[in-house]
Write a structure and sequence with these properties.
3 helices, about 160 residues, about 25% helix, four-stranded antiparallel sheet
Length: about 160
């Protein structure tokens, strides 16, 4: 198994726009939120890492969150991420530039993007009056029925 380590993540550009006001958004029943992830331009770079001076691959990314049907706005992030793995990076670079990047690497990079950018996207969407860019957990204290013989240890 190849060990993939993300060792750097940068946001270089943030662009966002709301095409309507919050009052219009509140009356919409269904808004399709589309995520577009683009990972491109792999570059081999020698860099100081937590593991010493190593060859890494730097990738540029773009993550767009589009509010569609109706088209009410968007949030777009651009930046780069660096990763290191304990395998032949030259071969991986050739594979990536030939258009057949390994899914494990793409998944790791995409999941890192989403986990780093989701909190920021939530703040931006709230500021612009757009629906949350990622689903928020629903808390339901009534949903779980406890048995009548179970004692309750919470006293508020």
């Amino acid at each position: 198994m190849v060990n993939i380590v993300i060792i750097g993540f940068q946001v270089k550009n943030i662009e966002s726009k709301s095409f309507t006001g919050p009052d219009v958004v509140k009356h919409q029943k269904n808004i399709n939120i589309n995520f577009d992830i683009n990972i491109r331009n792999p570059t081999l770079v020698v860099q100081n890492t937590p593991f010493g001076e190593k060859q890494i691959i730097r990738l540029e990314y773009a993550l767009s969150i589009n509010y569609l049907n109706p088209n009410i706005g968007y949030i777009r992030f651009e930046g780069s991420t660096d990763y290191f793995q304990d395998a032949d990076l030259e071969a991986l670079h050739k594979q990536w530039t030939a258009g057949s990047a390994p899914p494990a690497v793409q998944n790791e990079v995409a999941n890192t993007m989403v986990s780093n950018l989701s909190p920021l996207a939530l703040t931006i969407s709230k500021t612009l009056g757009l629906p949350p860019a990622v689903p928020l957990p629903a808390i339901n204290f009534q949903g779980k029925q406890k048995k009548t013989e179970e004692p309750t240890y919470y006293h508020g």
